[in-house]
Amino acid sequence: MFDRNEPEQGCVSAQTGPRKGGFARFVEITSCQFGNLVKLNLMFLLCCLPFAAFFACGILNPGAGYVFFSLSLAAAAPIGGGKAALCFCVSKMIRDDTGYVGYDFRRKFKENFLPAAAPGIVCVSVLCAQIYAFFFFLGAHVSPFLLLMCLFSALLFGMVYPYFFLQAGYLRLSVPALFLNSVRLGFRFPLRSALGALSGGAAGLAFVLFFPVSLLFAPFALLIGFSLPCLLALMWIWSPVNAMFGIEARTGTSATN
Q1: Cα–Cα 20 to 30 A to 48, which of 54, 68, 84, 138?
Q2: Is 139 domain-assigned?
Q3: 1 located within any domain
């Protein structure tokens, strides 16, 4: 999975003619890169296993829940590097840049493991806090305004954080610089950012809302539950990042919407 044997090929139509855009491009990528999306999903899941193990222990042992939840956040350190590597590899699919999925993921994970560790822990903490707050407000029968504010804060977060990890895969910048760029991009292109957050987070939101019934779809999460939402989000936000930093101009691939 991590070796450089043969480069994965891009989509045939993109190699022989003008690149499609919008939904047609999404269908094209998922059809010809499905195997690579599964590979990326499994590799990202490996980065999440330490966090998931401690978090599950906290749920199963309520008496020591705070201890296990604290350990789970520390164990979330690999998730930042994994997210940066996932965004890098998925964006290469959007650019139709041939490469080695396993090798590229490992390389970007190693590059971003330490720089993205703290941001990854922060993102996991925010997501857990938002999920907890949503169910708390839902169970406490608070005013719909507070529930909407909770959802709105989740939307704002979703509009910003994908930019951070996408940039981390390409740019050698400090964490504060990546964060400021992410905020600027998120609010400079609010429609694209919001649509990216909604399309990329829809599956996760549905899984949380309909839990435990949603466990029936756990096999889907194991196969493409992270890589496919990442593709959906990046389809919206790749163009602003590419336009601002000229990534495709430097790598020699044509622009895409």
Answers
A1: 138
A2: yes
A3: no
